[in-house]
């Protein structure tokens, strides 16, 4: 049940398991870092937002990862961030010792997040955030269907009494009830206001002129809207997100006193062995009567989605010996809107690195524009928005290189009594700025009322 404290029986069980681990002298000679896997026999409630450092879930697949504490991390930025993170993980693997006494066969997962732009210096509201982060939690909880595994990691396997105390604190923190800060709910006048509309419209007109002159096929403009929030609603956010967006990937990460959350409908890349999958998602309308048919019939929206599908297929093709056949898009219905979508699957021709494939794929035309390099250059020169992690990458990876990376959409950055919401719209030659602005408002509202008082 959501919000209930962890049962005493589970805490006693965990204390007993730690006591047995501390008595195993052989573990003290293990290399650094060390990860130990334990089957967890109790039901696990969804934690409150303030009780976890890392969170990823796909509710429809009953798959959830929770992380607390951090025993190893890498902060990087710049154009070489993908190779740097790949190198750091390979270095970690050289001495990483893993013990799985109960045969869980679950590889440990590291959480990662990368900003939209490798050159983003993370200023303004993003001050103190890394451009790109790869982190190994001290305590990882891996849930798949009804099976739960705890992964305990340490960089100091020789000081067992101290380390066991740290694991116990991590375990207890996940089930704590953080004190909810009071908040002020946004007034009707504050909700999704167009205070920056004049500036956004001017940028849109400039972008459209260049698109129609042939400089680009598409440019994606984004916006940010802040509002005051109610503290009680924030603590229940993870459960609310899972309930509202069961077919999305829920992502949350803590950085100092701030928390970034996302309910993304778009996988950038999923890799399992030699199998890869990616979502080509673009084109947006609300849920009104006939909207689904409009999505399928409007040439502009179909072109938008086709640009994304074309980018993904052309990027993956050199690395795959087989790709799924080209198919027309379907309508993907979410809470308050719907998109055109198709899944692209491939079988790799060689053991290509997840990092390499992600670097080639991101950013897609869905979040930047096309041609990609020219679109990024234009956004760096003319777009005043500090995107930070919005429309970047979030997800997880394991030591074998399998994992899932999602495009960070439907986002909010939460700090103190305020949340900043982000949304974007893709401009093509047929775009009307007023219609694209309305699309951003529709996207902003996907998360908006989740922050109202319960």
List keywords for this structure.
single chain, 454 residues, alpha+beta, ten-stranded antiparallel beta sheet
Description:
- This protein is about 30% helix and about 30% strand.
- The longest helix is centred in the C-terminal third of the chain and has 18 residues, at about 300-315.
- By secondary structure, it is of the alpha+beta class.
- It has eleven helices and 22 strands.
- A hairpin with a 5-residue loop joins β19 and β20 (about 405).
- The protein is globular.
Short précis:
This protein has eleven helices and 22 strands.
What's the layout of helices and strands?
Elements: H1 8-23, E1 34-39, E2 54-58, E3 63-68, E4 72-76, H2 81-95, E5 97-99, E6 110-114, E7 132-136, E8 139-144, E9 147-154, H3 160-174, H4 197-212, E10 218-228, H5 231-235, H6 237-244, E11 249-255, E12 258-264, E13 267-272, E14 275-285, H7 291-297, H8 299-316, E15 320-323, E16 330-333, E17 338-348, H9 354-361, E18 369-370, H10 372-382, E19 393-397, E20 403-407, E21 411-415, E22 418-427, H11 433-448
Helix pairs in contact: 1-3, 2-9
Superfamily (CATH H level) name of the domain at 8-174: Anthranilate synthase
Q: Can you count the beta strands?
A: 22
* Backbone shape: globular
What name is given to the CATH topology of the domain at 8-174? Anthranilate synthase
Question: Which strand order do you get reading across the main beta sheet?
Answer: 5-1-9-8-3-2-11-12-21-22-10-18
Structural class: alpha+beta
């Amino acid at each position: 049940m959501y919000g209930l404290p962890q049962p005493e029986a589970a805490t006693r069980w965990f204390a007993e398991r730690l006591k047995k681990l501390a008595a195993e002298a052989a573990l003290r000679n293990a290399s650094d870092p060390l990860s130990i896997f334990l089957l967890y026999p109790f039901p696990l409630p969804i934690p409150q937002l303030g009780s976890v450092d890392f969170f990823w879930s796909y509710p429809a697949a009953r798959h959830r990862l929770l992380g607390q504490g951090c025993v190893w991390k890498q902060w990087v930025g710049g154009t070489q961030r993908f190779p740097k993170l790949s190198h750091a993980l390979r270095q970690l693997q050289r001495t990483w010792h893993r013990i799985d006494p109960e045969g869980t066969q679950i590889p440990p997962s590291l959480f990662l997040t990368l900003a939209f732009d490798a050159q983003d210096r993370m200023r303004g509201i993003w001050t103190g955030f890394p451009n790109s982060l790869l982190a190994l939690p001290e305590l990882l909880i891996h849930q798949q269907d009804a099976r739960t595994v705890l992964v305990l990691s340490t960089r100091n396997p020789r000081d067992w009494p101290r380390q066991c105390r740290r694991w116990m604190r991590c375990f207890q923190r996940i089930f704590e009830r953080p004190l909810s800060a009071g908040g002020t709910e946004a007034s009707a006048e504050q909700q999704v206001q167009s205070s920056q509309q004049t500036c956004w419209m001017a940028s849109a007109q400039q972008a459209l002129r260049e698109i129609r002159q042939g400089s680009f096929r598409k440019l994606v403009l984004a916006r940010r809207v802040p509002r005051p929030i109610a503290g009680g609603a924030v603590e229940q956010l993870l459960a609310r997100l899972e309930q509202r967006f069961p077919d999305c990937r829920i992502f949350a990460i803590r950085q100092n006193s701030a928390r970034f959350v996302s309910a993304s409908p778009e996988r950038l890349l999923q890799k399992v062995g030699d199998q890869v999958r990616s979502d080509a998602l673009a084109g947006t309308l609300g849920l009104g009567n006939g909207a689904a048919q409009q999505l399928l019939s409007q040439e502009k929206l179909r072109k938008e989605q086709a640009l994304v599908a074309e980018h993904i297929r052309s990027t993956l093709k050199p690395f795959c010996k087989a790709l799924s056949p080209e198919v027309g898009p379907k309508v993907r219905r979410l809470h308050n809107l719907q998109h055109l979508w198709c899944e692209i699957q491939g079988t790799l021709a060689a053991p290509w690195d997840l990092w390499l494939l992600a670097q080639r794929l991101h950013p897609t035309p869905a979040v930047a524009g096309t041609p990609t390099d020219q679109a990024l250059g234009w956004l760096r020169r003319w777009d005043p928005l500090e995107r930070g992690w919005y429309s970047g990458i979030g997800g997880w990876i394991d030591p074998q290189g399998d994992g899932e990376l999602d495009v960070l959409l439907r986002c909010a950055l939460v700090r103190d009594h305020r949340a900043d919401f982000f949304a974007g719209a893709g401009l093509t030659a047929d775009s009307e700025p007023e219609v694209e602005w309305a699309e951003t408002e529709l996207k902003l509202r996907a998360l908006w009322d989740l922050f109202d008082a319960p």
